[in-house]
Design goal:
Elements: E1 2-6, H1 10-26, E2 30-35, H2 41-46, E3 50-53, H3 63-80, E4 84-88, H4 90-102, E5 108-112, H5 117-120, H6 124-141, E6 145-148, H7 151-159, E7 168-170, E8 192-196, H8 205-217, E9 223-227, H9 240-248, E10 253-254, H10 261-266, E11 270-273, H11 282-289, E12 294-297, E13 312-315, H12 320-331, H13 334-352, H14 354-369
Parallel strand pairs: 1-2, 1-4, 2-3, 4-5, 5-6, 6-7, 8-9, 8-11, 9-10, 11-12, 12-13
Helix pairs in contact: 3-4, 4-6, 8-12, 11-13
């Protein structure tokens, strides 16, 4: 059996889907990765997988370019002749599904990893993109198996008539490698609070900076760091100039993209993600696995990970004041951080370990093998 995994970056495939690809290989499958290349192709090859480079515009909606994209991925699939196509991220879900159907490939699994700018944006452009995406989703998802990372996203798709209950499944996240993200003690230092994410407004970057400013103003001794890259390909990207200005003002530190996030966790006390909406943020699961308390917003994707008052705190989205209050509790109470960290590790072991998630995902593949729809 052969599966093609199609995504918009090789970084995504390496960081989020490699464990499952290895699991499939252990079951006798051949897995081929298809994506634009950005430095992770060699790492995937080193793991024994074949990678097919594929250029893809992440934000364009030019119909001529998009039609060409469908034709090109269809050509790849025609050449590879996979038994199953697994698509990740919006454009790949849409174009990969259409291309596979054009070739008569019946086994298609689509993973909805979050709703993104097209659903979260409030501008006229975002509204236009949303209407286009909804129409394309309706065509692409019909007759496929669809995986959601949280029940809120699944409900939205069912309510809009994009999927049926029978064809959709909720699998919480992509799984965490418990050995790689092992339980570690809290550092003995001035408390460090990090926001590890792409530098997007809808990740709550503004609220994080505002909360840091509030706590600095109250004399709370702590360091606040933004850990992640500027994503120029996303309409919601925070300008680099704004980030550097905040750092010059002494509000936050800009650590940028960090390849080894485990090492970042070792020097951090609290992990924060004040996002407006998520699929199921793996970074929070990895943080919890390492024993770090979490402060996140009470939104889809985050509320599945954080039990308020147990392994962290949930706060309203877009509220810097509520975020500051929650962070202050943890900054000032090391023992609370320790207890919440241990609770988070236990939760990951019981619900989010890679071994658990891989088996649940493979069960959907088994449905297709049995001819289930």
């Amino acid at each position: 059996m052969k599966a093609v995994f199609f995504a918009n970056t090789d970084w995504y495939l390496y960081n989020f889907r490699l464990d499952y690809a290895k699991f499939l290989r252990s079951k006798g499958w051949e897995v081929v990765f298809v994506s634009p290349t950005g430095g992770y192709e060699s790492l995937l090859i080193d793991e024994g997988f074949r990678v097919i480079p594929f250029s893809l515009s992440r934000k364009g909606i030019n119909p001529f370019i998009e039609s060409d994209t469908i034709a090109r991925i269809q050509s790849v699939l025609a050449r590879e002749k996979p038994d199953l196509v697994q698509n990740y991220t919006v454009k790949c879900v849409i174009y990969g599904s259409i291309a596979a159907k054009n070739l008569g490939i019946s086994k298609i699994v689509n993973s909805i990893t979050g709703l993104g700018y097209s659903f979260l944006g409030r501008t006229p452009l975002a509204f236009l993109i949303r209407e286009i995406v909804l129409r394309l989703y309706r065509k692409a998802l019909k007759g496929t198996q669809v995986l959601f990372e949280n029940p809120d996203d699944q409900k939205i798709f069912i309510d809009r008539g994009l999927v049926t209950t029978d064809q959709s499944h909720v699998i919480l996240g992509t799984g965490v490698n418990l050995n790689r993200f092992r339980l570690i003690s809290l550092p003995e230092n001035t408390p460090v609070v990090i926001l590890p994410a792409r530098m997007l407004w809808d990740k709550g970057v503004h609220e994080f900076v505002a909360a840091a400013k509030i706590l600095h103003g109250k004399g709370i001794k702590a360091r606040f760091a933004l850990v992640g890259k500027v994503d120029d390909g996303n309409p919601a990207s925070v300008p680099f100039e704004r980030l550097t200005q905040w750092q010059k003002e002494g509000i936050v530190e800009i650590w940028g993209w960090q390849e080894d996030i485990f090492t970042v966790f070792t020097i951090s006390n609290v992990v924060c993600l004040p996002s407006y909406r998520e699929g199921l943020p793996k970074i929070l699961l990895e943080a919890a696995s390492c024993g770090r308390p979490i402060v996140a917003t009470d939104v889809a994707g985050c509320r599945e990970i954080v039990r308020d008052g147990v392994n962290g705190f949930l706060v309203p989205a877009r509220s810097a004041e509520a975020l500051a209050d929650a962070l202050e509790k943890l900054i000032l109470d090391r023992e609370l951080c320790r207890r919440m960290g241990i609770a988070g590790r236990k939760m990951v072991e019981e619900k989010f370990a890679s071994a658990i998630v891989n088996v649940k995902t493979y069960a959907v593949y088994a449905l297709l093998e049995q001819g289930g729809r």
